[in-house]
Design goal:
Structural class: alpha+beta
Number of helices: 9
Shape: elongated
Order of helices and strands: HEEHHHEHEEEHHHHEE
Radius of gyration: 22 Å
Distance between the termini: 39 Å
Protein name: Lipoprotein
Largest sheet: 5 strands, mixed
């Protein structure tokens, strides 16, 4: 147990408490308040403390536990980084670059058939926004209009808000746009969902 506590406390210190390495927030020296707020939001220390409680009866950490501990650290540091906090002054997370990477990854598999009445055409990224374009056929096209799309917005929003990266998107105020076209390429409806709507 003592060895486990020592290991975790040492690693916790290395992840960046205010008395640890020098921190930068968006390229500028970070205040202790900024570090504290972001650490709290990411919950790294809290997760490590919970891990200690769960394994407090064990005298020595196993390889599996070591792996789990370092995974907790990795997640915490990634969380802090995407919120603008880093020990490297020049290492800054850029949300637009990240969104561009997402679009590029998706577009490698597009266009793709969604169902018998629709095709996902492309994903485009812009300033804090991802835009998904779909083509709808016959029956779907006749039934869908701007009024109806607003009615199904809660369902689409719920699916969006269950995304594993939703907290990251919320922090950077990302918006998601869905554009629906008919088979002639004419726009028939669209929907814009700010991630601020996710609770």
């Amino acid at each position: 147990m003592k060895r486990l506590v020592y290991l975790v406390s040492t690693i916790s210190f290395l992840t960046g408490c205010s008395t640890g390495p020098k921190w930068y927030y968006q390229g500028q020296p970070a205040t202790s308040e900024q570090v504290s707020q972001i650490e709290k939001a990411c919950g790294g220390d809290a997760k490590l403390e919970e891990y200690i409680k769960t394994h407090q009866k064990e005298s020595s950490p196993s390889k599996k536990q070591m792996k789990e501990i370092f995974q907790l650290i990795k997640e915490a540091k990634t969380c802090m980084f995407v919120r603008g906090l880093s020990t490297d002054k020049d290492a800054q997370f850029d949300i637009n670059t990240y969104l561009a990477q997402i679009a590029e990854r998706y577009n490698k598999h597009l266009p793709s058939i969604v169902d018998t009445n629709s095709i996902a055409n492309e994903v485009r990224s812009s300033d804090r926004k991802l835009t998904y374009t779909y083509t709808l056929f016959d029956e779907e096209t006749k039934q869908l209009n701007q009024k109806k799309i607003k009615k199904i917005k809660p369902t689409i929003t719920k699916a969006l808000c269950s995304s594993p990266n939703i907290e990251l998107f919320k922090f950077h105020q990302v918006q998601f746009e869905y554009i629906y076209k008919n088979k002639e390429g004419d726009k028939i409806a669209s929907l814009l969902i700010p991630t601020s709507e996710c609770q």
